[in-house]
Amino acid sequence: MGKPHVVVIPYPAQGHVISLMELSQNLAKQGIKINFVNTMFNHKRVLDAFGEKVDENGLSHLLSVPDGLEDGEDRNQLGKLTESLYQVMPTQPKELIHKVNGSNDDKISCVLVYIGMGLALDVAAELGIPMVGLWPAAVLQLAVLLRVPKLIDDGLID
């Protein structure tokens, strides 16, 4: 087996992409091969901003998948973007993992995903690949989101 090989899939919003990109760059500095998956729209923005500087050590590779929105549609409407992603994401991670593993001696050893992109975690589990779910936002926000069903059940909110 070669180098550890991680596929990183952020939610396609600026703060999520930036934080997971920084984590990916730090992992690459430790000798871990990274495939960073962005939407085609964000992929172009990253390349426009960074050019060749994204992969200074030869271990980081940028990949892209469609987000399901048409050219010119507003990607700042996060509800619409999320809905579109959930329509196209069921097939994208599996196809991407098979493509990467088929073209590479260093098979994917881990999938690191923003937990809001849970469909990718399901695919990793199905393929038997270890996975990590990350929440790059404030931990308090995650705690509240995880407790909403209980708050509703207890009648504290509706």
Task: Please describe what this structure looks like.
- This protein is an alpha/beta fold.
- It has a single domain (5-153), classed as Rossmann fold.
- The chain has helices at residues 14-29, 40-50, 78-88, 92-102, 118-127, 139-153, and strands at 5-9, 33-39, 60-65, 110-114, 131-134.
- InterPro entries: Glyco_transf_N (IPR058980).
Task: Summarize this entry quickly.
This protein is an alpha/beta fold and 158 residues long. It has one domain (5-153): Rossmann fold.
Shape: globular
* Helical residues, percent: 40-55%
| Helix count from the secondary structure assignment | 6
CATH homologous superfamily caption:
Glycogen Phosphorylase B
Strand share of the residues? 15-25%
Number of domains: 1
- Average pLDDT score: 82
Structural class: alpha/beta
Q: Give, in order, the helices and strands.
A: EHEHEHHEHEH
| Main beta sheet | 5 strands, parallel
CATH class bucket:
Alpha Beta
Reported by name, the CATH topology is Rossmann fold
Question: What is the tally of beta strands?
Answer: 5
**Poorly predicted regions:** none
How big is the Rg? Answer: 17 Å
Widest sheet, order of strands = 3-2-1-4-5
Distance between the termini: 52 Å
Keywords: Glycosyltransferase, Transferase
Protein name: UDP-glycosyltransferase 83A1-like
Organism: Gossypium hirsutum
Family: Belongs to the UDP-glycosyltransferase family.
